[in-house]
Design a protein that fits this description.
Helix content: 10-25%
Structural class: alpha/beta
Number of helices: 3
Strand order of the largest sheet: 1-4-3-2
Distance between the termini: 25 Å
Shape: globular
Number of strands: 8
Oligomer: single chain
Radius of gyration: 15 Å
Order of helices and strands: EHEEEHEHEEE
Strand content: 35-45%
């Protein structure tokens, strides 16, 4: 068994697509209209185009906003993405205007940083030695 798909709730799918592709570097995998303005919109890592997909899930369900607000308030990331070098990725993304809520922090064999995806979520980047 392996993870095929995971999701993050986003307020605006088009804005999320731009952020996750133009800034984070993912590539669009699926973009299927679902009726109205919602889409089945997924992105993947260009390093693993057949790997785990991230669904940019519309946040219209009434439970989403209180859930995300509580996570952000408590500093809990909605997702975690592996990178080769957290400080280098932090510098690259910050130069592109990405806001971080946690600068790179080494914790034993793991280094993390947390960013605001502009779509209502905190996202952690992580590297394990």
């Amino acid at each position: 068994m392996k993870i095929h798909l995971t999701s993050v709730f986003v307020d605006d799918q088009e804005e999320a697509l731009r952020f996750y592709t133009d800034l984070l570097g993912f590539v669009k995998k699926h973009d299927v209209p679902l009726g109205g303005t919602d889409r089945w919109l997924t992105v993947v890592s260009p390093e693993d185009p057949d790997g785990t997909e991230l669904l940019l899930e519309p946040s219209g369900h009434p439970a989403v906003q209180p859930f995300r607000t509580a996570l952000v308030r408590d500093g809990i990331p909605a997702a975690s993405f592996a990178v080769d070098d957290v400080p280098a990725e932090f510098d690259r993304l910050r130069a592109l205007g990405v806001h971080f809520t946690q600068e790179p922090r080494a914790m034993g064999p793991v280094t993390t940083a947390v960013l605001d995806d502009t779509c209502g979520n905190l996202i952690q980047i992580v590297h394990s030695k």
